[in-house]
């Protein structure tokens, strides 16, 4: 893009004399603010209008900026551009008397951009390598009243512009003076300036009445290479002026008109170039200035425009239009093209250079390569190495292919078949047992199926399919015999070997006279192949994961079996609950909810669930009771849930799930009714339900603690409630076919045990609270549960101290010590849904 800089000169003496004040300020390195001096702060009608406007540029300078600063920020970079053979342009633009000539030419003490640029240009040429030759020449012209004059030889008169075949605009017949030093150029420049038309105006006593164009041409010739031309234009434009401001008449006025016309043409070009997408045609022909600047503006040049303004309030209008002009120029984009001929020449030279390098490295003379013995030898060795590398690569890749083969291509088919079979059996069973219409994917129905569907015989079609899959699997296993026989360690070793082999080959190639590029290529190839060694491992992981996601038929079968068992357990428990008209404790509801969600695969509802059919209506039939979400409803019954709450979800702490079958050694519970030999040992048969009995409190201080007993249960502050709990447990065990532990405190009169209180604040309610306070009791239970199951059951406000507890180390909740449960799962169902079933069986056997 065209780089645009803005320079604000200091206030002149004349401006200060006429009482002007500064209205243009540099805000930061790029932003300039112009304040309207006529804006009346008391004008309420224009109060909302902004009285100042900011403009941003590539770089902005104020009065404090030195010539050196301006040079470094704008023009210095162009030196390298020009000596490398490209075009560059720097031009000063602005109203008359704003410092354009000062910036470009400067003074003796403060030389301007021209002197500095030329000084650095020659210095760079001097420092350039001996391979490159430079020739510098210069021409200096002015465009005065639309006429081109040679400032180095004014006698030539009016010169003409023409475009050469390459589209470059040239001034015919202009004097080109070779220069060998900056000093020489500056002398020529001074000579030309003396010829430049300069007249005093009211605005500037040394007003330039023409556009001055210094053209420095640098011819760059690379030894053995092509020739390049770099051109540097340094243009000091005449200042735009207003007749009223300059108070010009006659010739001055005519000059001013020409100046303004050419500047207007320049402005139009800038406008058109800044909207290049919409305006395809750029009219450079309106003035000599724009024709000359065609390359600089329209492309093929690195161009810098330095706009100048006065800070004075009296120059506000000119400053505003200049800022807008320069701001618009900022959006011009230029594309620097290189001389195609010189580019081609450079490329040829590069090719020759590379060829000669290659010849030297391979020991091959430029001519007669086939007769050269070292070259032929190198070719043979290279061919051999190539073959060896290819072999190594094949070896390296082969095991990857083995890994990539699926373990058993028939496996997916088997899975499909198993799923189909399962669905088919479920369908058959339901039709037979329930006569229900079947909804595909009805998981609840599947659960209900129990293990009956397992007994449905396999259809002949499925059996045939299974056999054919087995045959295919056998065949494919035979084909992949190598893989099966080759353990992973062996394959890894194989990879390492081939990798080492490749490295050895690479080492062997190193002393050869191969080029740097070839060596780099080899290294790259090795890097490319390396990941393949590591690839099989993640891939095998993926395969393994896939296998887990699609478990084999046997796993599916097992899972179905467990689910069926689980459903049976739940049914029987429901029967038990219904028969005894027991309320469902909240943890059980939660577990049940989790269970149903697992069945439905829906992690959604978290509301409290309530068994609708319970406790008022006994569970009917064999189907699961319907459970509806009841948000915010308190569970109707307190329940010692410490253990259950300590681990709500079976998948989160599966190891703490209570076993279904009571074991004496761990929990102090043992079945006393060996007649029940089903999966739920100790659970009374639903066919012969016995109502739960309320055990009399041996101490006579509390009721049985069962729901509904709360009214009858007096508060018993500070007393351990383990005894009635144990009594209830005992009662239940009697009714459910379980027996209390022979050494249970409830039967042995509470052998005291000293346990540190886990509830120092005494926030957990005691059993008396639970039983006697109805709905508030579960909260206390929950609080107690947070302190560890089986602990902290005492009344609120009870002080923390070791105290005798009337339990046998199981906690006052009777059977509620960690891991306590009345029913233990059979070993075969202690996984997955079976575990969940174990949790569900828990309250049924420990009910008070
Ligand atoms: N940055 C500056 N620092 C100090 N003096 C400056 C600066 N810029 C301009 N001047 C002074 O302002 C006066 C006018 O400057 P100059 O002749 O360069 O203006 P100009 O834009 O070239 O005017 P014109 O277009 O009429 O030729 C000169 O006396 C010059 O020394």
TrEMBL record:
Comp. bias (Gly residues): 762-771
Ranges where the record places region Disordered: 427-452, 671-830
Subcellular location as annotated: Cytoplasm, Cytoskeleton
A molecular function GO annotation: ATP binding
GO BP, one annotated term: microtubule-based movement
GO CC term, one of those recorded: microtubule
Coiled-coil residue spans: none
Domain of life: Eukaryota
Ranges where the Kinesin motor domain occurs: 1-332
Keyword Coiled coil (UniProt): yes
Binding site for ATP: 94-101
Compositionally biased spans, kind Polar residues: 728-747
InterPro entries: Kinesin-like_fam, Kinesin_motor_CS, Kinesin_motor_dom, Kinesin_motor_dom_sf, P-loop_NTPase
CDD domains reported in the protein's UniProt record: KISc_KIP3_like
Primary location: cytoplasm
Biased composition (Low complexity): 772-788
Keywords assigned by UniProt, alphabetized: ATP-binding, Coiled coil, Cytoplasm, Cytoskeleton, Microtubule, Motor protein, Nucleotide-binding
Family membership: Belongs to the TRAFAC class myosin-kinesin ATPase superfamily. Kinesin family.
Protein name: Kinesin-like protein
Source organism of this protein record: Otus sunia
Lineage, uppermost ranks: Eukaryota, Metazoa, Chordata, Craniata, Vertebrata
